[in-house]
TrEMBL record:
Keyword Transmembrane helix included in the entry's annotation: no
Signal peptide bounds: 1-22
Organism from which the protein derives: Fulvivirga sedimenti
Protein name, UniProt field: DsrE family protein
Superkingdom classification of source: Bacteria
């Protein structure tokens, strides 16, 4: 009986100490994606006076094809975290450069359906990112290497010569690099 009660009390204590749930998540700039928690007493926060120029090298993709991509959703999470930390959304310049298998997250519904058997669950997230001011860029080399035409991708995507040239150019312009 003692062996059962100890784990039970441990679980109950964790519920009392950490009562956060998915319902407590906030979505200050990207609604319904990249939910975060407000840490009001955090010692280290973003500086609301800075202009945040961030380029994200996104080449990874999750294996689950029926839900919004985990790595693409991390972009929304990063933006939400900066805003809840006090950064004005107008001071947040985000460029997401997709390459490798991540280019599949950009397929329109018809092309995604042909490849994976369902509509693209990333379209709504791409729309929300675009509405929030994030620039979505795809590596032209990755598109050609995967035989994907421009007409097959989300229309707000910009095509770069390559991920390598887009990221290095933005870094030389002062953008901080994150890799997902």
């Amino acid at each position: 009986m003692k062996k059962i009660l100890i784990p039970l009390f441990t679980v109950l204590a964790l519920i009392v100490v950490f009562p956060l749930s998915a319902q407590d998540r906030e979505y200050p700039v990207i609604k319904d994606f990249g939910g975060i928690y407000d840490i009001k007493d955090a010692d280290v926060k973003p500086d609301p006076e800075l202009m945040y120029n961030i380029v994200i090298d996104l080449g990874s993709t999750s294996n689950e094809k029926k839900y919004a991509d985990y790595y693409l959703e991390r972009v929304a999470r990063m933006m939400n975290l900066h805003v809840i930390g006090g950064v004005n959304p107008s001071n947040l310049n985000v460029v997401v450069v997709l390459h490798a298998n991540a280019v599949n997250t950009l397929l329109n519904h018809q092309s995604y359906n042909q490849k994976f058997g369902s509509n693209n669950p990333n379209i709504e997230l791409l729309e929300r990112l675009h509405e929030a001011g994030a620039e979505i860029v795809v590596c032209g080399q990755s598109l050609i290497g995967r035989n994907i035409r421009e007409s097959e991708i989300y229309p707000e995507v910009k095509i770069a010569t390559s991920m390598l040239t887009a990221v290095t150019t933005l870094q030389l312009k002062g953008y901080a690099l994150l890799q997902f």
